[in-house]
Amino acid sequence: MSKTGALSGLTVLDLSRLLPGPFCSMILADHGARVIAIEDKRFAGEAGGNSAVLRNKEHITLNLKSEKGREIFFKMARSADIILEGFRPGVTKRLGVDYDSVKKINPKIIYCSISGYGQTGPYSDVAGHDVNYLSVAGVLDLIGGKDHPPSIPGIQIADLAGGGMYAGIGILMALYARQQTGTGQYIDISMTDGSMSLLSLVLSIKQFTGLPVKRSDSFLSHRYACYNTYETADKRYISIGAVENRFWKNLCNYFDKPEYIALQYDDGVRGEIIDFLRQKFKQKPLAKWREEFDGLDICWGPVRSLDEAMEDPLFKEREMVVDLKDSTNGKMIKFLGVPVKLSDTPGSVRKLPPAFGEDTAAILKEYGYSDENVKEFEKQGII
Fold first, then answer.
1. Which residue numbers are catalytic?
2. pTM value surpassing 0.90
3. pLDDT of 280-315, one tens digit each?
4. For the chain, percent helix, then strand, then coil, each to nearest 5?
């Protein structure tokens, strides 16, 4: 088993900030790529310099609006494998660090841009955030209670799944293509495109049934008793996901209601069945339901808080909750682990997030600049 990671040997220059791009480059870093995050020191307070998504990375400051800053960037880009950016479309071109400029000196570069609405189209210049991308893509309309306004989810679906993950997939595809062609390419990731792609099953169900898909009133969203959530006696919640009839049958038999087995998706009685289960689940606390359902094959789960989930032995055994020691104070800091489990080249959480600009001097020296150069760059506001 190699401890270096599947992407060991690759160098990533990450110009992105906030969440989508840094989340993507975190995935690459977790699997062994060297990721150098590059940010302008003017945004130190905004970028979240000690964010968890900076783990396993190095961090430098660089003013790309200055001629010397661009010179340093191109020196680094000449030997880099991947460049990631998350500016509004057109910004990198104005700065002079766009894909066309970089590929002149490094035709093997893989250059990935993550933006809200993509590099082309009528919304390319429109500002937005996660909630806006989900709204435009038709995702937000499906989240929330029936006959209630759409609810903003507690996680950033567009940023993480629509942007960061798809960027990672695109980069890996481009790396594979580069092995065949010897050249890199440009990747245009739209968080709104990515969000809309998550509706594939929703669209299939709509086409199959011919019915509109409504908020909290669809095949896999509260319409039927077999795929629903229920309150318990202690005001906690339990999820039931008994989609297949064999699981539904086990649940019906547990409640001594065999007559409901064949009525799983019968719209005429679905309200009656949901009300029955609501009354039943309110009779016992969540811990008791865990005991009752232990060993039963019905597809159920407790609705947990983040803190509760992080204490589950499942995630500890699978190293989805890991601890790193902070050498400055000796405290242990919790991180979420690496979800992709590779047998021979596993990823890992190895290094705490760096402070903003922590590695600037060391990296500049690595690229041939002296201590005097570094001091001068600081004076001039280049770093």
1. 129, 159
2. yes
3. 999 999 999 999 999 999 999 999 999 999 999 999
4. 40, 15, 45
